[in-house]
Amino acid sequence: MPLRQGGRGGHAPAPLLWALLPLLALAQGAAWWAAGGGGAVAWGGGAALAGLRGGAWALRGAGGLRWPGLLMVALPGQLLAGGLAVLARQGLASHPAWLALLVLLLPMALLLLWEARLLADSLFARAYRRRHPALGQAGGPEPRVSVHLPTQDMPPALLRDTLDHLAELDYGALEVLVLDSSHSPESWEPVAEHCARLGPRFRFFHLGAGQRAARNFALREMAPDAALVATLEPGCRVQPDWLRHAVPFFRDPGLGFVQAAACAPERGAPLAERLAHAADASRWPRVQRARNEHRAVPLRPALALIRRPALEMAGGWDEAAPCQPAELGLRLLRQGWDGLELADGLAAGHVPAVPQASVAGLLHGLRRHGAALLNPRHRGLSPAQRRHLLAEPAASAGDALWLALAVLALPWTLALAAARLLEAAPLLPFLLPALMLPLFRLAQAALLAPRGYRALAGLAALATMPERGAALWRAALAPTAETGRPHRLVSLLLALLAGAAGSLGLGGAQGLGWAGVLLLLAVPCAAALALRRQARPAPAEWEAG
């Protein structure tokens, strides 16, 4: 039976930090009062109070963090809250149009604090209490593993390579079910012949156009005595000890699934493969360790090993989900099953980063499990689980808000130029999306990415911002529309921002500040196009169903 998980209370934040927050809030209010003169006393007090509330809100449930982590969470919360109060004061005093920007800036500030807390969880935990020692294989027969490999219209050579590596697994109680939904016989017939050559452990099924039903079909066709279900993707070359390493963890009766990781690409690997590894924060060891600690492991299509009773209790695979493993993982966690993510690389090749790359999958998960993920009083998940499971939706939402503000800057520029009021440009409101969010993405990559990938991870973090934001807006506003080409929007936005900044720079000194903001907004677009020229596919297109 699954083990119901509860939130770990941990230590309360240090009393000295609670005493420091009011002092910092008073200093913040005093600085604003001095800058605004005697008439700004009320707003100085408002900025101090907002900063105090922001810092206190950010510290909720942060008792498991060490001092640097507490400061990493509290200080941005205080500064962002005080800054929004300052923005409101200036908007009411002289720039009423600025108040409209608060609709976008307030949620962006909250999302930035959310990501700061995740960063602190990964860097400054007091201790990691969960231990998963390497277990030896228990005596008695090995539990049978049924490996399911769904595929559609993939190159036969790629599938043969994956099957050959499965044939080399150092595990006896094994069967492999290949579920091919290819349309052309040239795609599936060579795979069927190769399965026949590999022996009776390899069974091939051609399902026609039933790709979404393939995994549930495999549940009905697998061996009756199979105790574990493994999922794999074409192009994944497993190590011979994958199952020998992962199966013994299921001696823990509350463990519902084990998610293994892919090996880091070698130095001579193609740039697209190295970029995929660098851009996917879910593969970074520090992020994996934090998710294991808080029992918030996501399930992905490749290298997952699932306990069969847990899968059956959950009702099988959701055929309506864009990313079925991600949705199943949420159901298993809500039912109280534990998940484990192995940091050791147990496969090579390009393993798509789903659900992290699939915006449609993220939105489906929020619709299906919104009550458990968004309601803090819901008992299906602990607060720490919500925080980590919502990491990718929070980042995607932040990128979408960034994109909205970048687009909004263009008509704002036209209005300012037409009215000859460039000196009244909203520099302060646009600094949050133009400067703080990209800097935070770069710092996140520098602090969390493994050595050798930090520079590439930083570039990839900037490059994913415009395309992931565009994908989220498209999925939210036109979910039935065909997937477009977001790089065209990125190219257009880059040209417009750079052109507007250039014309302002040539127009005189009064427009230089606003021109600098426009150039800062154009930096992620330039990074996206630069990386697209160097590698295919681009970061926003690494999706799998």
TrEMBL record:
Main subcellular localisation: membrane
InterPro entries reported in the protein's UniProt record: Glyco_trans_2-like, Glycosyltr_2/OpgH_subfam, Nucleotide-diphossugar_trans
All residue ranges annotated as the Glycosyltransferase 2-like domain in the record: 146-264
Key words, A-Z: Glycosyltransferase, Membrane, Transferase, Transmembrane, Transmembrane helix
UniProt entry tagged with the keyword Membrane: yes
Cell compartment(s), UniProt: Membrane
Transmembrane region(s): 40-59, 71-92, 98-120, 400-422, 428-449, 489-506, 512-531
GO CC annotations on file: plasma membrane
Pfam families the record matches: Glycos_transf_2
Coiled coil residues, start to end: none
Tree of life domain: Bacteria
Membrane-related topology note: Multi-pass membrane protein
Protein name per Swiss-Prot or TrEMBL: Glycosyltransferase 2-like domain-containing protein
